[in-house]
Design goal:
The protein is of the alpha/beta class and about 280 residues long. Helices cover about 25% and strands about 25% of the residues.
């Protein structure tokens, strides 16, 4: 059974990632508004009824701004830590299920494992999703590639991997120094160089797809980062996840399955407070 993946949006204006099989799926984060999530899934031919749960990595608004409405409308359980929940708009009317690091959650035949990471949030986690021997990792909002990140990256047949900023663009850019230091200080985000080092050093030989994620609008360039990774890609297909539109759907274990029927014009998702970097 193949695993199907797509980025619905990736960047400081909203993050939402789809992982599923032919029967069920999960969303990792819900950082775009509900109607935009529905629109983008519809363009990809993905059925919201197949989504059985939402997993939340941390409380920054670019990961949760659509959460409360989406979860209520579709009666979806939200998997979240207690510390993270305190910073959300979830109420007792929502189906909230807490998870612990390194414990496995079963959603049908999908197996979701959370692990802790370095990021400037209350209780940040990343996830790997396994189905029938195929593993997909979601590695964004990572200050540095700690042992947990490396361990799980080595298992992945496909991964969403943060490549947030180009070092020179960040240092020469318009951001104030406190924010530059926050981004690159070990609890912020991975640079292109740090992400590439993780990929070239720890990529398993069976990794078929790498989706570069959470690129900074001001401190990175999609063409630059794709060219950088493509030099080292080997048999891994490199895709840059956009901050304005969904990617295609990819079938892990088989070749590429579909692209959106028509490419939409860039839609800027409403950015709210706490939408950092």
């Amino acid at each position: 059974m193949s695993v199907f993946i797509a980025s619905l949006n990736s960047g400081s204006n909203g993050n939402c990632y789809y992982v599923g099989n032919s029967e069920e799926a999960v969303l990792i984060d819900a950082g775009i508004i509900c109607r935009e999530t529905e629109k983008r899934m519809g363009r990809l031919g993905l059925d919201m009824r197949r989504v059985k749960a939402i997993f939340i990595s941390h409380e920054h608004t670019d990961h949760i701004c659509g959460l409360a409405v989406l979860a209520k409308k579709y009666n979806l359980p939200v998997y979240i830590t207690d510390n993270t929940r305190q910073h959300t708009a979830l109420t007792d009317k929502h189906c909230v299920i807490t998870f612990n690091a390194n414990s496995q959650v079963s959603i049908g035949s999908l197996r979701v494992t959370a692990f802790s990471k370095y990021h400037d949030a209350a209780d940040p986690h990343s996830f790997v999703v396994e189905n029938n021997g195929i593993t997909v990792g979601i590695f964004t909002d990572i200050g540095r590639a700690c042992d947990n990140v490396i361990k799980h990256f080595k298992l992945c047949h496909a991964a969403f991997l943060e490549a947030n900023y180009d070092e020179d663009m960040l240092l020469r850019g318009r951001y104030p120094w406190f924010l530059k230091n926050r981004i690159r200080g070990g609890n912020g985000h991975l640079s292109n160089t740090q992400s590439l080092e993780l990929f070239t050093t720890h990529r398993p030989p069976f990794m078929s797809h790498l989706l570069l994620a959470h690129l900074s609008r001001d401190n990175n360039n999609p063409e630059l980062v794709k060219e950088l990774f493509s030099r080292h890609a080997g048999n891994t297909e490199i895709i840059v996840a956009s901050r304005y539109e969904e990617t295609a759907v990819y079938s892990i274990g088989n070749k590429f399955v579909q692209a959106p029927a028509s490419r939409p014009q860039p839609v800027k998702v409403q950015q709210m407070q706490l939408s950092l970097f």
